[in-house]
Amino acid sequence: MNDFFQKWELDPLKLPRHVGIIMDGNGRWATSRRLPRVAGHKKGVERVNEITEFAVKCGLHALTLYAFSDENWRRPEEEVSALMSLLRWYLKAERNKILDNNIRFRLIGDRGKLSSDILEMAVELENASAANDGLNLCIALSYGSRGEILRAVRKLVEKVNCGEIYLADIDEQYFAEHLDTHGLPEVDLVIRTSGEQRVSNFLLWQSAYAEYIFENTPWPDFSEVHFAESLKKYSVRERRFGRTPEQANPASAADSKSDRQRIHLKAVKATGQ
Ligand code: IPE
Ligand code: IPE
Ligand code: MG
Q1: 117 catalytically annotated
Q2: How many angstroms separate the alpha carbon of residue 209 from the centre of ligand 1?
Q3: Which of 73, 118, 125, 260 has the smallest count of CB within 10 Å of its CB?
Q4: Pocket of ligand 1, candidates 28, 83, 139, 192: which has the most ligand atoms within 8 Å of its Cβ, to mutate?
């Protein structure tokens, strides 16, 4: 194991492949400090860099960050435009670092609602990083999972209507290939910061079997220490995918069997039977 994994006490074999993060709590972080909400969003962008770098060092396959939901368009115009300006800044400032770190960048969400300059910058970065084979970094922007699913349904209906495919060709895998996240593995872990325990329309299809971790820390305070803790919590979860514990984890089933035998022998000894 290399120094990085030793330092953070992480087992590289027990890490998730795809992590989604609902970066929540920027507003409350700022308000509790008597600062304008946008100050929380600014601090939040710094965390994006820190957590992305940590994901790169961990060798994660994909990291999807929920930056702005489809529903967030309902916020006051001032806040929306401050968030979009921060995003412009992020795309400009981080472009080269993303490329240098072998990161493949992708935007997911309803592109039709984004202003053309943001979309141009994002598409340019998608293209420039397309050949990178390190971390897949997805920024969910103007993103809503229901909307994404509906867009996929429309694409499929169109294909059926024009005779490109049969209805029977649509299985789960084919359907997933029409989502914005096509080509990425399913989400293994969803982390939501700042104490809310809800999904808020994030990757509903892709996280059907994800583990959820809800952290009380607001996003602007969510450091690599918190991220490492969440990854550690994930590594001891038992994922069953519908199977029994014995099927899902034969090694631990064997352990508990030998534990049971030991307890039984102890009992036999104690009772002399
Ligand atoms: C998350 O923080 C960032 C976005 C949704 C854009 P919030 O702005 O939701 O912060 P709270 O939940 O109001 O504290
Ligand atoms: C979800 O956070 C979206 C992002 C983190 C970008 P919200 O703060 O908007 O979620 P709700 O509306 O409180 O559920
Ligand atoms: Mg919020």
Answers
A1: no
A2: 25
A3: 260
A4: 28
The runs of H, that is alpha helices, within 114-171 are: 116-128, 145-161
Residues forming beta bridges with residue 237, ordered by sequence position: none
How far from chain centre, in Å, is Cα 22?
7
* CA nearest to 22, candidates 232, 219, 233, 237: 219
For the stretch 29-40, pLDDT in tens is 999 999 999 999
User: What's at 133, amino acid-wise?
Assistant: D
- DSSP H or E stretch at residue 136: strand 136-143
What is the torsional sign of CA 184, 187, 193, 199? positive
Sign of CA dihedral 81, 29, 92, 147: negative
pLDDT tens track for 204-238: 999 999 999 999 999 999 999 999 999 999 999 99
81 is written with which tokens? 């435009």
- Give yes or no: 72 in active site: yes
What pLDDT, on the 0 to 100 scale, is given for residue 259? 53
Encode 245-259: b = buried (16+ Cβ within 10 Å), e = exposed: eeeebeeeeeeeeee
Average pLDDT value for residue range 39-54:
98
Q: Where are the alpha helices (DSSP H) in the chain?
A: 3-8, 26-31, 37-58, 77-100, 116-128, 145-161, 172-176, 224-235, 245-248, 250-271
- Give me the pLDDT at residue 263, please: 46
Domain ranges for the chain, please list them: 11-143+185-271
